[in-house]
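Example for reference:
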Amino acid sequence: MKSREQEYREIFLAEALEAYDAMSQHISVLEKKPDDEAALHELFRLMHNLKANARAMGFAEVGELAHRMETIFGLIRSKERAFSGSLVPVMFDGVDTMGSMIRAVNENQPFPDVSTLLENLDRLVSGEELQVETAVVVPSDEDANRKLELSDLVYIQIKKLDHLLNLVGELIIDRDRVLTLSQEIGDPALANVAAHLSRLADDLQYSVMDARLVGVGTLFNKFPRVVRDVATAEQKEVELSISGQDIQIDRNILQIITDALLHLVRNAIGHGMETPAERRKAGKTPEGHLSLSAQTERDDVLIRISDDGRGIDVEAVRRKAVQRGQVSAEVASRLSEGEVYALLFEAGFSTADQVTEISGRGVGLDVVKLAIDSLGGQVRVESRLGEGTTFTLVLPTSIAVKGALLFELEEHSYALPLMHTDSVVSLWPEHLNIVGGMLLAEIQGENVPVVSLRELLSDTDDTLVPASKDTLVGRQDIIITNYNSRKLGLIVDRFLRQQDIVIKPVSQPLDMIDLFGGVTLLGSGQVCLVLDVPALTRLFLARRP
């Protein structure tokens, strides 16, 4: 397996070779048409990008040559120099030398001596006469024999990768069906073919998923300007630190969370950060600190947005929720800290007293929740009053194939995404308690409400019937789900197994029921509904006694 450094080196070389080819073309155009602004602008842009990429990769010599040539193209662009006379052969020499240096990187060879070229470039910048003779570039025997080199990098539209991944999903479904069929028939030859098909499908799946991965830095690197603009608008001083840019994630996931991340950063500055005067009064530095980081945790990617601002005032959120009529004063007083944080993600909720361009419009965290829910992810909140807040986005690496827990309910198979599955337990009725008409189970020192999934899915919007142990016979298989810091136990008929599934959209009329997040096809050919944990949690909260 290639290291991350090797991958970046290959990408640099591919892009650098493409840039060299483009520079050779544009400088030839410029020689014939010295006033061709399009060719001049493109040469300047190519040199600027090559300079930045070379320096980022540690190829300082390439970066230095590109910098000197960029400077001269800039002077030509601003009409301070003309692309004529002795400047022409020097610039052609520079482009050719750039090609030689790129090839040297590719072949792990030492760079050619460019001291004479750099001296000439410096003299061109300062307007001095060239002290070192430079011959007009003419093709040598060593050169029309030079091999033409093509880039190893192929740019693919994301929609083509999406289509390819959908085909892989169909293949995985058929793979599972063939495996099941081979087990039922018991034919050794068919079993061998099925095992080989399984390996090929796995390799193809991971190869396609790998092709879709991009570094989160492609999104993170856009935020320094965002932070600067928002801090200026809010009249605050904010320092941004970024880490984990190399962490890889599906490009589509990165696209989906773009707005969510933007809202979180804006909220961190608008809501979380104090003004310089307020920070001094609180014994802090005038400048606030905001960090954007990414890391992997098992099969998930965690993106954190942390600030050292004022933190979340839990009591203020309780009061606001009561004022908005979201909960009664009695219920609000009993909410745990995590449940209070969950209120922040309700549509239209805001604790801001004044409306500004950044905050107080009631838009932001609900958008974040919707985006993360659509991916089957989670949002975690940690905060300490006066010290700061951290939002953690828990995201899958890929959205095409998801881990799921399969279970049975009334002889039908269902699936729950593992992203929202906290644990599974089997408890006797005597280990369950009834409080306020609800079943409660003590799971790792925490009281978790428990409900029969059969009853929750019943065709009624009425309040759930108060719980009774009389209806519970024998051990109860319970799936503990976790959504928005709320845990909920779902009683099912039987656990089946854990497996990767390909989720497809539901068709009519089931698409009208938001409790189902999609469907998948099992190896037996049976259609299996995928339950939507956020929707189930909201339904329980609306119907609980």
Remarks:
- The longest helix spans residues 4-32.
- Residues 34 and 83 are 6 Å apart (CA to CA).
- The chain has a mean pLDDT of 83.
